Amino acid sequence: MADSSRRLFELVFRNKLDEDTLMIIKPFNIFLRIFFSSKFKIRNGYITPRDKTYYILPFIFVSLFKVWTVYYVYIYNSSILNNTFRHIYFWHIFISYCIYYSLLVYCNIVNSQNNVVLILRIQEIFRSIHLKNGIRSYVIWNWITFVVLASLECFCTTIYARTMNLLSSLNSFDILLSICYDFNVACSIRLIKSLTLNLVEWSNTDK
Known about the structure:
Largest sheet: 2 strands, antiparallel
Order of helices and strands: HHEEHHHHHH
Number of helices: 8
Number of strands: 2
Distance between the termini: 38 Å
Helix content: over 70%
Mean pLDDT: 77
Oligomer: single chain
């Protein structure tokens, strides 16, 4: 009960972000918003949890779109499933995406407040350590990581689409939706990296 009250207090009264923190989480928020998976909302320098409708409405849309994709492939483009390997691979991609995306939506809804509290905790750590140079380097590598990942994903999905004869506007959008999971993994890794930087700097200050 005490933890819940403290979390609520922070979300309402202590959710102002510093410039350094805004600079850190900006690449996270931009790329995740593209794939309907933003963890928080930032307005006028204040961070707040996303509403449930932000996740539920895209989930309904994406689910209907995935069903339509299967229908489209089987009715209008069934020639791409002309052998067992392609058939199995197609369903593997489809089922994997459904599982990953469902888990992401569930975690985003359940942990909507925790995601904001995590950012506020990281901000408190940065305030106490004063890691100015490390922050700049970290932010630069965030942008590099996400831009390189986006480029590689677009390249790989294009190759996949050409191989499966799926290179159309409909299926290209469907394939791009699958990148959402990879960006969430990349964001998690980069957040862990920020905590590692804080730990290293904190250990150095005690020497």
